Amino acid sequence: DAGITQSPRHKVTETGTPVTLRCHQTENHRYMYWYRQDPGHGLRLIHYSYGVKDTDKGEVSDGYSVSRSKTEDFLLTLESATSSQTSVYFCAISAPPSAAGVDSYNEQFFGPGTRLTVL
Amino acid sequence: AQKVTQAQTEISVVEKEDVTLDCVYETRDTTYYLFWYKQPPSGELVFLIRRNSFDEQNEISGRYSWNFQKSTSSFNFTITASQVVDSAVYFCALFSSNTGKLIFGQGTTLQVKP
Q: In this predicted structure, what is the pLDDT of residue B84?
């Protein structure tokens, strides 16, 4: 199994409070991602990172920010949590495309998930 | 636009039946990758298979097989002789080389009854 941990695994918070979720990897992979999983939507990309201090927005980035100061850690912050952000959050990592001269992509490996409830 | 559609929300079968999970995708990319992931009741996401757009060979791994047809933009997943342990949510996903992002379908919940 890929070495990916997420903390906390469960959190209940109140509307308007800030929340930070942490993703930690021991694989030294450059690429890291944050997704949220909601019924009927599958997984949707929130933010991703292609390296230290190199981040970009996904399809559902409003209300979220991220930071990556070290290769192994990718933080997701909800500045002011809302009930619509109640979800299961998954972190993922992947290796960059191979350098073999052929366009390629490696599979993403996912962390165990964080269940966040905003009351 | 990139899109993945898993039209079957829930499927229920009896153990030992064969079951096929459908996946239809939309993309204008010439180079792309298709994936299947399994999410058992414990919640983790488990990678099952990756297929690139240039390789239409079907693949078999034990009781699992995948049928990739570019002509119909489909990447269907068949479980032969299903078992209770196959009960899970299965996600099909499309990676776009242009956007660098992985797009997931809505997922199909498979229940295998003893």
A: 97
